[in-house]
Amino acid sequence: MKISTRGRYAIRVMLDLAEHNTGEYIPLMDIAKRQEISEKYLESIVASLSKSGLVHSLRGKGGGYQLAKAPEEYSIGSILRITEGSLAPVSCLENHPNQCGRVSMCKTIKMWEGLYKLIDDYFNGITLADLMVDTSDVGNYVI
Fold it and tell me: Residue 65 CB: number of other CB atoms within 10 A?
């Protein structure tokens, strides 16, 4: 599994919104400058975050973006699922129930299900608030 640039940037945007939360809407241009990411590219990312209800948007003067909830209410898994679609390591686990015609005889399905659970548990166990505290500990999250 490989997290795309879109997924990584979505986390950076959400973290930026959390760290710069003053109660005001934050212009996308400000986020783009701080994160050194193209504003045009961020537009599509925040559009999906807004559509999914993770952020609120306001157009016009004084407009921009802000988190819809407190940072501790956002798991990294929830953000990645919006941008990546699925965190499943193999395609047959993307649907529930598993639609694969070979699932009943598959000798590797338990291994893939185990990996999927580890990925889900890991990313669901980290919140934006956790990342705000000390990013040097990110590699030390234990599930």
Answer: 24
Which pTM value belongs to this model?
0.86
DSSP track, 12-80: HHHHHHHHT-SSS-B-HHHHHHHHT--HHHHHHHHHHHHHTTSEEEE-STT-EEEESS-GGG-BHHHHH
pLDDT per position as a tens digit, 85-124: 889 888 888 877 877 888 888 899 999 999 999 999 999 9
Structural domains in the chain plus CATH codes: 1-86+127-137 (1.10.10.10)
